[in-house]
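The record is passed on directly below:
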Amino acid sequence: MNPRGTALRAGWNRGLIELRQSFTNGEDLVSHLLWPVLMLLVLFFLRDRSFESDGIPLSTLVLPSVLGMNAAMGMVTMSQVLTAEREDGTLLRAKATPNGMPGYLVGKVVAISGGLLADLAILLLPGLLIIDGLTVGSPGAWLNLAWVLVLGMLATLPIGAILGSVFTSARGQGLIQLPVLGVIAISGIFYPVTALPEWLQGVAQATPVYWLGLGTRSALLPDSAAAVEIGDSWRQLETVGVLGAWAVAGLLVAPFVLRRMARRESGSGVAGRREKALQRIG
């Protein structure tokens, strides 16, 4: 039996176990439910507000955008998990196991992507009951949503792995929260990007968050809603191109960065980081 294949299957099973545990552990379950519930409340209060004179309810525009944003936030979750488990020695134990690193990473991808999809379902299904104007009756809408989410996670999860490799402590990893919030603010998630200055629109289009939001809007909104987008178009080919470029770049860089991080891991390094963490708590 191929040892690498065995390790990958073990990683898949571990990911499924972690995913199941996240929905049976009270604290993790709250984290799964809290953000979708908050977003549904925001959407409920936006249902009677429209974007300028176009007559499109803001809640209709925002719901698909938030789905894209949540998928993009997988990179933050991935970086948090890798940083935390690097600090507590979990990563070192995976390194010490034959083919442990590939299995470890497969498990994290399965657990995080599965949790993301569950969170999106928790948001979308109730959202369909309170938001009008979505094209969810069309089979094409669900196919479009599927490819956007899969490509979006391929584009963003490797970024999270790279960020998790860069920071050596959870405290340092928290520094990425502000830039991520800034990117979300200019990416047309909660208000059409065309309302921003052109230079900010250009910055937004360099990020995968904008294209994930645009892709989910193109899947779930009628063609008339493209009037509030750049160029009055959903630009699906550009969405594939930009997200695909991010995915290729991430998948090329992430393994190199992760191997380099794993080689530098040692018992003394884990002990030193743990001691520093205890000093901060004290």
The chain has one domain: 3-281. Residues 100-130 form the longest helix (31 residues).
